[in-house]
Amino acid sequence: KVAIKGIERELICPACKELFTHPLILPCQHNICHKCVKEILFAFEDSFADGGSESSNQSSPRIRISASSMDRIDRINRSGIKRNSLTPRSTLFPCPSCQRDIDLGERGINGLFRNFTLETIVERYRQAARAAIAIMCDFCKPPPQESTKSCMDCSASFCNECFKIHHPWGTVKAQHEYVGPTTNFRPKILMCPEHEMERVNMYCEICRRPVCHLCKLGGGHANHRVTTMSTAYKTLKEKLSKDIEYLISKESQVKAHITQLDLLLKETECNSERAKQEASQSFEKLYHVLEEKKSAALRAIETSKNIRLEKLQTQVEEYQGLLENNGLVGYAQEVLKETDPSCFVQTAKQLHIRIQKATESLRSFRPAAETTFEDFVVDTAKQEDILGDLSFHSNGLEIPEINEEQSRMYNKALISWECPGKTDSADIYVLEYHKLNKEEQSVTWQKTEVCGKSKVLSDLDDDSSYAFRVRGYKGSICSLWSREVIMRTPPAPVFSFLFDDKCGYNNEHLQLNPRRTSVESRAGFPLLLGSERLQVGCYTTLDYIIGDTGIAKGKHFWAFSVEAYSYLVKVGVVPSNKIQKLFHNTHDVTSPRYEQDSGHDSGSEDAFFDSSQPCTLVTLGMKKFFIPATPAAPKDPASRILPLPSCLGICLDCDRGRVGFYDAGRMKCLYECEVDCSGLMYPAFALMGGAAVHLEEPVTAKYREYHDDI
């Protein structure tokens, strides 16, 4: 048997760090004092009322709420949970043991069971710890006598005389249950906290708690699997007994593990000291290199200073010599006193040259040396970045790789990455990115920490290229940086719209999905019947559909994808004043005259056909992108046919009157032309035969979670 004094840490409340007092069982099966639950919830409610201020987070002196618990309380406050006393609500409680937010249900504290078993064990421990302290009789006149027994029905302690008086022979009280002196009184029957008049007689295997028959019939456990209390008692007691026997039988193994752990503790201490020494040596090397560089830089500055001072001092002396009765001027004045012409000429020639130089220096004064030391400024920006990234590298931590297929650049940037080994060996990832700018010499990376393997960024500029890289961290150890991936943002802000299911929509030929983000054209019987009525040529009308939102001004971009099996799709824009003409246009047909090999593709016919169109469209189909035949386009028809990108984009600039068609995956313009933007402009699509178009979904913070669920 384990000594009662050896189980003290199992009897300590995780909140107040004292012995349990009236412990309650939380839904997570952890225990906590009744007072501690109330104090934590009071602190929670106060932080709600005061907006999470620091003063509201001051709990009572009895309870010590950890910083992580207060952080979870603040997070619950910020999560937007609304409190309304008029409607039933659930109560969230931050469990100090498992560090999770536990839902206490609508009844809150009143729905929790009191752990009488734990309370009894705590009382035994207290009695063993204070064996010399007696429990006094509750009914003796002063001075009270030491109690000899406690009545569980009366919840009081008695000496022998008082017990006989209050429990006379032959009365109902004589049948009361009594035990040795104790201060722990618990009810003989455990009642249901939700149905206070009902005793618990079943055990819910899903919630792992006792329940009454009303809970099973119509309460919160109606659809749960339950068993009888006796069966649960027998099963749990057998399991617990077997586990205890197993632990006792493995005592020698446990001691061996403890010995091994002691060795590991010592080994960890030694290895940590060795790692500290190696790290210190590495930094000492850096210090030595920096000291050498510092000394060399200071010596160079000092040498340059001395040279400049010497030059400036010489220049000062020369100018001082120009002063009257001093230096060169005085000497020249003395030479002028010479009366012998031959002697004067002999001396004056060289003197005249010096006087001319002095005169020229006066006319164009320039210091002999620069006073600034701009050439000696040490640029440490790159070194600071390198030192900022200085950390422990581990060969065991995998280098993440950015998945370019799963990453997207649309209204926001979605950057996804994965580890080659498909294992999440890192605890946290750091994603860095910067805008590519040829004018900037130094690169400033923006950094963000991510707990998962994807991140949505919303602060990027339009029509710009960005470089991305990611690395993993596990504690203080980090992996190497991943390969940099360059992605380009759309040329303009993203324009959001849905397919219009009212204006000109032909539900016999076209089919929309419920969200109106996809449209499909099926080559069914209506198409066959339409072709059967025509005996000459083969004219088949396109089925048009437009967006439900128009554009009046500005520059906008939207993207979509065309299914690979699509036979013919036209995409572009249409002004509001030509929408009716679009849906009733008799020229908008497909005819053999315009087939490439029909011999009827002259420039005059193309000009007539293009001018007759009410909107600006380009043709897609059969996995190809067809550049329209314009004077600026290549003459060879084959050079006007490009592979169909997986995602297409359209950029409409109403201010400049131009529309561009893009490969949205690379944000590369494939074709651009002028367009009349005098009216409200709508996205336009035309389908014929078997074809389908899907609008690109905007990137949101929950984008990856949504698609993972799908």
Automatic annotation (TrEMBL):
Domain COS: 336-393
Gene Ontology molecular-function annotations: ligase activity; ubiquitin-protein transferase activity; zinc ion binding
Keywords: Coiled coil, Cytoplasm, Cytoskeleton, Ligase, Metal-binding, Microtubule, Repeat, Transferase, Ubl conjugation pathway, Zinc, Zinc-finger
Location in or out of the cell: Cytoplasm, Cytoskeleton
Domain of life of the native organism: Eukaryota
Keyword Transmembrane helix: no
PANTHER family xref list: E3 UBIQUITIN-PROTEIN LIGASE TRIM36, E3 UBIQUITIN-PROTEIN LIGASE TRIM36-RELATED
Protein species of origin: Pomatorhinus ruficollis (streak-breasted scimitar babbler)
Keyword Metal-binding assigned: yes
Gene: Trim36
Residue ranges the record marks as coiled coil: 258-285
Name of the molecule in the record: TRI36 ligase
